[in-house]
Amino acid sequence: MRRAGSWGVLALLFLGAATAHAEEADEALLAPEEEPVVPPTEDTSIAEPPKEPEPTAPTGGTPIDLQADEAPATARAPGKKAPKRPPKAREGFQMDIRTGARFPAGSASGAPGDSLGARYAWQVPLTVGLGFKLSPHLYLGGYIGGARGSLGSDQRTRRACRHGGGCRATAAELGAQLSYSFSPAARWNPWISYGLGWEQVIQSLSTDASDFRGYVEETTTQGFTLAKLGVGIDHRARVGIGPFAEAAVGQYYANKTLLGDGTLTKEIDKTALHVWITLGARLVIAP
Amino acid sequence: MNSRRSVFSLAAICLAALLACKEGTDNPAVSRLSVKVHGAGGELTRECVYLPVLLGSNLERTIPSSAGLRIRIEATRDEAHITTSGAFPNVKRTVTQATLEAGYAEEFSLDVQGARYQLNLASQCDDD
Description:
The complex is a heterodimer. Chain A is mainly β. Chain A has helices at 2-30, 116-119, 155-161; strands spanning 63-64, 89-90, 92-106, 120-133, 138-151, 166-181, 188-207, 215-236, 239-259, 262-267, 273-285. In chain A, the strands form two sheets. In chain A, strands 3-4-5-6-7-8-9-11 form an eight-stranded antiparallel barrel. A two-stranded antiparallel ribbon of chain A has the order 1-2. Chain A starts with a helix and ends with a strand. Chain B is α+β, with helices and mostly antiparallel strands. Chain B has one domain (32-122). In chain B, 24% of the residues lie in helices and 45% in strands. The longest helix of chain B is centred in the first third of the chain and has 25 residues, at 2-26. Chain A binds chain B through residues 108-109, 111, 113-114, 118-119, 151-152, 154, 156-157, 159-160, 162-163, 203, 205, 207, 209-212, 215, 217, 219, 221, 255, 257, 259-260, 262, 264, 266, 268, and chain B through 24-25, 27-30, 50, 52-61, 77, 127-128.
């Protein structure tokens, strides 16, 4: 219950930040002009765009003017509001929070019928990334996250779960991630990412069936995330927000079983590749 | 006439729902293996081992007995391997989860350091 509460608080924080972003975007559209407006002239030829400022030398944590990929400002009639420019490209600290839904694919092990979808249902992940933009385009950082969901499609597990008690899956992940921004100074910044790390999923089952009251079983499966491939696009304002998709290819190497008063850790004989496919939104601090 | 038919229909639906609930509480998909050793002096060992339910779960348990007999059980959700050491002849048996669910009982006579013992394996534990 307490866990569910903390997840709710985090979700509310995410929504709050997203709402703030939306309000900020509205403000930006209503903001007073920051650039001089070229008055209309009798000349019908297209007004020359104002000169772009020269890019400044990159310094740690300071914004860098990289507006070259933006459309040049054009002449506007007086009275019309100019949209606010996106924040300048940055180097230094950056943080992101991701959430959405992730879906299992592939096999948890090489044993017959041991698909990832049979073990785990879809999950709600929450991942926090912390790192540095080494250049306006390149980000390197670490991530830590968790996910919650139910047990998978395996019929025997489902039969046991129908008898009350509790059935759930809880995941954790930790690793490093590198991402590349295609337009770090633009309002819309598409990006791709690659990560690798460690992951585990705990599936737990308890049943309240009359003959088996007090039966508790928990299996912790650990493995490596070999390739966490992501793609997305951020809408950049004071914070960035945007959709992303991710495929995390991994391989589990060990199962730890807790059953009754005994615990057993065993390496997986026949390993196999699995994929967690995530669709969701990410919030970027210092985009 | 119509109201009587409605009452019958309602009763049939309730009965079907009750039967559905009953089916749900009968079989929770958990299988057990009862292990008992007894000799002339009475019962030496009594254990009820639960087979795992979750995919990926494993179980290993060694049941010692004061007579020098050791019973080892290695189980997954699909089957249990039972082996003994310190007896003649030693037992080596694999019992599948399907067999346990259908009902299983087997008795083995063992010679442990010159004394006779009976090893009973069954799918029903004493509290069943």
